[in-house]
């Protein structure tokens, strides 16, 4: 059974996703794949989208939705989304392999990093 707080959290995430994903799609067209990362017992999730290259000289992109509203281990929100741009051939890796890499980085960042400053 969903509580009012859970419903409100889901609605807030849906609105956040609509805004962020809409901005991505405006610039990069439709995503081709999505992976949803979640942790049992936690309301938040992080979605990672793959935007394939458009045209022969295009750039492949992976981008998060929801990372910015995910709490760190100390309770503070991460406050930023991530985007990874790759050559059309994905550096010789498969779409799934790159998804796995990004998900590992996101999970590590949530659990270990104390801020989102660029080193």
Task: Tell me the overall shape.
Answer: globular
- The neighbouring-strand order within the major sheet is 1-2-3-4
What number of structural domains do the residues give? 1
State the secondary-structure class: alpha+beta
State the helical fraction: 25-40%
> How many separate helices?
2
> How large, in whole angstroms, is the Cα Rg?
15 Å
Assembly status: single chain
Measured by DSSP, the beta-strand proportion falls in 15-25%
Low-pLDDT stretches: none
What's the story with the biggest beta sheet?
4 strands, antiparallel
State the end-to-end CA separation: 43 Å
Order of helices and strands: HEEEEH
Number of strands: 4
| Average pLDDT figure | 90
Question: How would you sum up this structure, described in words?
Answer:
This protein is α+β, with helices and mostly antiparallel strands and 119 residues long. It has one domain. The protein has 2 helices and 4 strands, in the order αββββα. The protein has a 4-stranded antiparallel beta sheet, sandwiched between helices. β1 and β2 form a beta hairpin. The N and C termini lie far apart (43 Å).
In short:
With 119 residues, the protein is α+β, with helices and mostly antiparallel strands.
